[in-house]
Amino acid sequence: NAGVTQTPKFQVLKTGQSMTLQCAQDMNHEYMSWYRQDPGMGLRLIHYSVGAGITDQGEVPNGYNVSRSTTEDFPLRLLSAAPSQTSVYFCASSSIQLPGVWRSSGYTFGSGTRLTVV
Amino acid sequence: GNSVTQMEGPVTLSEEAFLTINCTYTATGYPSLFWYVQYPGEGLQLLLKATKADDKGSNKGFEATYRKETTSFHLEKGSVQVSDSAVYFCALSETANYGGATNKLIFGTGTLLAVQP
Predict the structure, then answer these.
(1) Minimal-distance CA residue of chain A relative to B109
(2) B40-61: per-residue pLDDT in tens?
(3) Given CB 3.0 to 4.6 Å as the disulfide criterion, which of A7, A102, A117, B86 pairs with A81?
């Protein structure tokens, strides 16, 4: 089925370890983004990309890196995991918004990665 | 800046009760408005959307009307079921400086709905 695929679904890390959360989409969407979801805080944007080779920071980028070498993939790297990064991470994608067009199509979300840092 | 404010939860209802989840927004331009639903252990799914003033989005018995005069997009359902128990997120599309929407969505904090049999 077409959509956004995230792996792994669950992960436990020790403080200081690094890891990569994978995200892949097969809808040829130019725009991809990473959010974290924490209780009482809703969704907060970590990083986003408007196309291969182009990435930018969101609201809470510290401690995370991203790259976009292909249209399909947008991995999120935790450089040195901290307990404050315990969260549920969601990847989302959409077609690129054309300049001057007000109608927005919204996102397709992956099913999430639940990360615990101990 | 742009923002979305949702009513705090949890909202607890009995089956077949009427549901309203309030959502108000602050935004420049003419944002598109969305409701997403998150069932336990799953990602967010688009429930409905409206892209201009007075539009009504609807899906699975849920409805929401884009009210520009009150900057609101309240979610309603006439008769809830246990299977509607989930977290509901209101969201809007940010506006570009040159006009039009951007790809960035701003989300509310979510409202947990618990429906009891």
Answers:
(1) A42
(2) 888 999 999 999 999 999 999 9
(3) A117
Question: How many CB pairs below 8 A link A and B?
Answer: 80
Give the angle B81-B85-B88 at the CA atoms, nearest 5°: 120
Interchain proximity A42–B108, CB inside 8 Å: yes
**What integer is the mean pLDDT of B60-72?**
97
pLDDT 10s digits, A4-38: 999 999 999 999 999 999 999 999 999 999 999 99
Contact between residue A6 and residue A21 where contact means Cβ atoms under 8 Å apart: yes
Candidates B64, B89, B84; CA nearest to B74 is B64
What is the rounded distance in angstroms from the CA atom of residue B15 to the CA atom of residue A22? Answer: 39
pLDDT of B9 higher than 90: no
- Asked if the Cβ–Cβ distance from A98 to B32 is below 8 Å, we say no
- Copy the structure tokens of residue A47: 């990083």
DSSP classification of residue A20: E
DSSP for A24-78 reads EESS--SEEEEEEEETTTEEEEEEEEEETTEEEE-SS-TTEEE--SSSSB--EEE
